[in-house]
UniProtKB/TrEMBL annotation:
<feature type="domain" description="CN hydrolase">
    <location>
        <begin position="18"/>
        <end position="288"/>
    </location>
</feature>
<dbReference type="GO" id="GO:0016811">
    <property type="term" value="F:hydrolase activity, acting on carbon-nitrogen (but not peptide) bonds, in linear amides"/>
</dbReference>
<keyword id="KW-0378">Hydrolase</keyword>
<protein>
    <submittedName>
        <fullName>Carbon-nitrogen hydrolase family protein</fullName>
    </submittedName>
</protein>
<dbReference type="InterPro" id="IPR050345">
    <property type="entry name" value="Aliph_Amidase/BUP"/>
</dbReference>
<dbReference type="InterPro" id="IPR003010">
    <property type="entry name" value="C-N_Hydrolase"/>
</dbReference>
<dbReference type="InterPro" id="IPR036526">
    <property type="entry name" value="C-N_Hydrolase_sf"/>
</dbReference>
<dbReference type="Pfam" id="PF00795">
    <property type="entry name" value="CN_hydrolase"/>
</dbReference>
């Protein structure tokens, strides 16, 4: 452990084993109505299997790409996305969570992860801390720790009220995320919209970069549970992506990495669905409750190496995205509205 850091002592004295489910989604970019219907179908499948924890992915209402329609696809915090989470939670008597582009009353858009409880109450919200690459064009970062208190009877047999941790996509790549959640949570609710390295030339080089990128997408999710000492439910996207590349004449053609999985607090993957398996649901029983973290935190900003192309894109698309967001995405507070609901064709 670094800097004299010490992991928190275990929390609830008694843990509880429940069935968890993670959704792998084939979203249509910015087509909110379609994506909400698709999420409901897949979550209902999870609920029918008896899942009491159901994770939807990051950007479950819109998907993600460098697509101008996303500037107008954000929903209000009390709109149809949170209504879906609440409806599913009541229907299946489950915890249901996921993140979406959320336009708040101040006119800013944030990548907000909401968690609904079995009675339909919204238990809490986490705003992703930093947009990744071209995501900077569509939302700003947040500053909360990602801790969401759960009802004492959420899982029936725990001797103290449990706490969920929320984190999405490249938050799982950063040491700071693990530090703020480490030893403080009984369950990690996570998701991603992680895209591939494009197959440009020289083909062999880009194929090697993509092989490492695909492995990192899986490892970032599975390993995070060991860094924080809690089981993890990770939902993700699959399917093709075709869009412009910011500030270049190039076109991005790739796909989403998938890596939908459920891991125990020691990083053992209990169930997973690869990108090639397409949309669907994975389920596994997990023991909700914190354990002593099994992995020390490194003395560096990133938990995993990003690779040359993602590193370059991180910097240049961040610079591009801040101006694009100010010009095209942010709106004055009085213009906040749930519109348009479908993709611009």
């Amino acid at each position: 452990m670094t800097g004299g850091e010490r992991a928190s002592a275990p929390g609830p004295a008694r843990s509880e084993t429940v069935l968890a489910a993670a959704v792998q989604l084939d979203a249509r970019i910015a087509d909110v109505d379609h994506n909400l219907r698709r999420c409901e179908e897949l979550a209902d499948d999870a609920g029918a299997r008896g899942a009491r924890i159901i994770a939807l992915p990051e950007f479950f209402t819109t998907g993600i790409a460098f697509e101008p329609a996303l500037s107008h696809a954000a929903l209000p915090p009390g709109g149809s996305a949170t209504a879906l989470l609440q409806r599913l939670a009541v229907r299946h008597h489950a915890l249901v969570g996921g993140s979406f582009l959320c336009r708040d009353d101040d006119g800013e858009v944030r990548n907000a992860y909401f968690l609904a409880g079995p009675d339909g109450a919204l238990l809490g919200r986490h705003d992703k801390d930093l947009p990744t690459m071209w995501e900077n064009s569509f939302y700003i970062g947040g500053g909360d720790p990602g801790l969401i208190g759960l009802p004492p009877d959420a899982f029936g047999g725990m001797s103290a009220a449990p706490t969920a941790g929320a984190a999405v996509c490249w938050e799982l790549m950063r040491t700071g995320t693990a530090r703020r959640l480490r030893g403080r949570v009984d369950l990690m609710m996570t998701g991603s919209g992680w895209w591939t390295v494009p197959q440009w030339r020289p083909r062999g080089l880009f194929e090697r970069w993509e092989a490492r990128n695909e492995a990192t997408a899986r490892r970032a999710a599975a390993d995070f549970s060991r860094y924080v000492g809690a089981p993890l439910v990770h939902a993700a996207h699959c399917g093709p992506v075709d869009c412009r590349m910011p500030w270049t004449p190039l076109r991005y053609r790739g796909r989403l990495e998938g890596a939908t999985l459920i891991a125990d607090s020691h990083g053992h993957v209990l169930a997973e669905r690869t990108r090639d398996e397409g949309p669907g649901v994975v389920t596994a029983p997990i023991t909700v409750g914190r354990t002593r973290p099994g992995e020390s935190l490194p003395r560096r900003y990133w938990l995993h190496r990003r690779g040359p192309l993602p590193t370059a894109a991180w910097h240049y698309q961040r610079a591009h995205g801040r101006g694009y967001y100010a010009a095209h995405t942010r709106t004055p507070a009085e213009e906040d509205r749930e519109w348009p609901r479908t993709a611009v064709r």
